[in-house]
TrEMBL record:
Protein's name in the database: Trafficking protein particle complex subunit
Subcellular location: Endoplasmic reticulum; Golgi apparatus, cis-Golgi network
Alphabetized Gene3D superfamilies for the sequence: Trafficking protein particle complex subunit 3 (3.30.1380.20)
Role: May play a role in vesicular transport from endoplasmic reticulum to Golgi.
Quaternary structure and interacting proteins, as annotated: Homodimer. Component of the multisubunit TRAPP (transport protein particle) complex, which includes at least TRAPPC2, TRAPPC2L, TRAPPC3, TRAPPC3L, TRAPPC4, TRAPPC5, TRAPPC8, TRAPPC9, TRAPPC10, TRAPPC11 and TRAPPC12.
Keywords recorded for this protein, A-Z: Endoplasmic reticulum, ER-Golgi transport, Golgi apparatus, Lipoprotein, Palmitate, Transport
GO biological process: Golgi vesicle transport
Recorded name of the encoding gene: TRAPPC3L
Pfam assignment, any one: TRAPP
Assigned protein family: Belongs to the TRAPP small subunits family. BET3 subfamily.
Length: 183
């Protein structure tokens, strides 16, 4: 007897996976806070773990999304927000270009899914970046596609911000002449 997979299971599995990830992330941060007194150490560990996830996750993203090479930083930021965040976290952040140089962007999350079960930072942890894993994931994934970037939080809802804002600064200048030749 052949078993078939119900077609309606994918969205349910995605939601369960997201909730499991969010709960696991909370437990991870709690354990790191127990293991390390300094918030900077916890932030560093979260960033490094995220980086390691990002360098592996980018292959899955490219395979599942069928994205071709981006022609600009603006296009890259849009794909991160509209496809990657939607695919893995079920949200679509807004993209804001922060500088006229077109290499600095912000991803603005009205609702940060990593904070679904968190109301406030632990007592005495004012400089903790609870969601710093996201910065590491973005940095690692971008590095794997040869787009080194500085990624950091600009606003954090756990620290009184109205939104969660992640700043991305691409570290190489966009070579417009190269792109014109390849068109």
């Amino acid at each position: 007897m052949a078993m078939s997979r119900p077609t309606n299971r994918r969205p349910e599995n995605h939601k369960i996976s997201k909730e499991l990830f969010v709960l696991t992330h909370g437990a991870l941060v709690a354990q790191l806070c127990k293991d390390h007194e300094a918030d900077e150490d916890v932030n560093k560990y979260l960033d490094q773990m995220g980086y390691n996830i990002g360098i592996r996750l980018v292959e899955d993203f490219l395979a599942r999304s069928s994205i071709k090479k981006c022609r600009s930083y603006n296009e890259t930021a849009d794909i991160i927000a509209k496809i990657a965040f939607k695919m893995y976290l079920g949200i679509t952040p807004s993209v804001i270009c922060r500088k006229e140089s077109a290499n600095e962007f912000s991803l603005v999350l009205d609702k940060n899914p990593l904070l679904d079960f968190v109301e406030e930072l632990p007592v005495g942890r004012a400089s903790l970046c609870f969601s710093n894993l996201l910065c590491g994931v973005l940095r690692g994934a971008l590095e794997m596609i040869h787009l080194p970037a500085d990624v950091q939080f600009i606003q954090d809802q756990l620290k009184g911000g109205n939104v969660t804002e992640i700043g991305i600064t691409f570290l190489r200048k966009n070579d417009d002449k190269k792109h014109r030749r390849n068109k």
